[in-house]
Design a protein that fits this description.
There is one protein chain. With 288 residues, the chain is of the alpha+beta class. The chain has five helices and 17 strands. The strands form six sheets. Strands 1, 2, 4 and 5 form a four-stranded antiparallel beta sheet that branches. A hairpin with a 6-residue loop joins strand 8 and strand 9. Helix 4 packs antiparallel against helix 5. The longest helix has 24 residues. The protein starts with 19 loop residues before the first helix and ends with a strand. The structure holds 2-amino-4-trifluoromethylsulfanyl-butyric acid and cobalt (II) ion (CO) (2 copies). 2-amino-4-trifluoromethylsulfanyl-butyric acid (MF3) binds next to strand 4. One cobalt (II) ion binds next to strand 8.
């Protein structure tokens, strides 16, 4: 008989009294569910730090929303993000992150994510663009992205942008305290498929706050009751990438830095992202 290996992420120092919170997490862990490591539960001080980073990150995206226009280059968006962030005594997290060269990701049409701003790339009527900003303030991270439609676009693109936004919403609503990452993945997948869209599987949301990318991987497809347990005090993103065609993606061969991700079939892709705090009653958005 093989002994099922349980991942024992939750640790209680020897001799220390168990709190009710410890007991509840341990009861899941002992039944073989994947539970968070202790450090993924943020302290009140950390939560306030992430919240403050979120306020600046939202300010950046609001600025982009006011300024973005047809004919603008994606490099100009980068400049707006860099200057606003620095003026607020914060740091744009993408800049120099694992070799990423700019302060923001700007992903147009069939670019799924990690589009790199360029001086020779101009927004055109009908384009759909995702602007993804992450701000570091006093060492704390907040991460969010929005879609913008340039002028008038096709009904298909309008629908894709709307469905992607709804996917973030249904994922958020599926996230009750003591639910699982798989629950939100299931809800997102169901909503996308019902609307004839697909969900990118190779990139996911993530824990965030003390670092840019922490555990858990927040997959946007899944089975209910699987993946990591989501408990009050965890901070993570949900950021479904929704494609009009197939879910498959590839690296852009024209990007020597190997950051830019495209849809494999050239179809359009849309994404919305927030940073969330799990509370006793459900998710609180930290990037509004
Ligand atoms: N902001 C992205 C995310 O949502 C990560 C971008 S990494 C970068 O996780 F280096 F490209 F900025
Ligand atoms: Co993110
Ligand atoms: Co992001």
């Amino acid at each position: 008989m093989a002994l099922k290996r349980i991942i024992r992420n939750w640790k209680v120092p020897k001799g220390q009294e168990l709190t009710d919170f410890d007991k509840k997490i341990l009861s899941y862990q002992n039944r073989g569910f994947l539970v968070p490591k202790n450090k993924l539960i943020k302290t009140p001080e950390q939560i306030e730090g992430i919240r403050a980073a979120g306020v600046i990150n939202t300010g950046v995206l609001d600025l982009v929303e006011r300024e973005i226009h047809i004919g603008m280059s994606t490099e100009e968006i980068d400049k707006l993000v860099y200057e606003y962030t620095m003026d607020h005594h914060a740091i744009p997290a993408p800049l120099n992150y694992e070799g990423y060269p700019k302060s923001v990701c700007t992903s147009i049409n069939d670019v799924v994510c990690h589009g790199i701003p360029r001086a020779d790339e101009f927004l055109e009527e009908g384009d759909i663009i995702n602007v993804d900003c992450t701000t570091i303030l006093n060492g704390y991270y907040a991460d969010a992205s929005r879609m913008f439609i340039m002028g008038k676009t096709t009904p298909q693109r309008e629908k894709l942008v709307r469905v992607a936004k709804e996917c973030l919403q249904v994922g958020m609503e599926a996230c009750k305290p003591w639910s699982f990452v798989g629950d939100l993945g299931y809800a997102i997948q169901k909503h996308a498929h019902k609307n004839g869209c697909s969900v990118v599987r190779d990139l996911c949301g993530h824990g965030v706050g003390n670092e840019f990318h922490e555990e858990p991987d927040v997959e946007h497809v899944g089975k209910k009751g699987t993946g990591m347990l989501l408990v009050p005090g965890m901070v993570f993103t949900i950021e479904p990438m929704i494609n009009g065609g197939s879910w498959e993606v590839c690296l852009d061969e024209e990007d020597p830095l190997e950051w830019v991700i495209l849809t494999l079939d050239g179809s359009d892709s849309a994404q919305w992202e927030h940073t969330f705090l799990m509370t006793e009653t459900g998710l609180e958005i930290l990037t509004y």
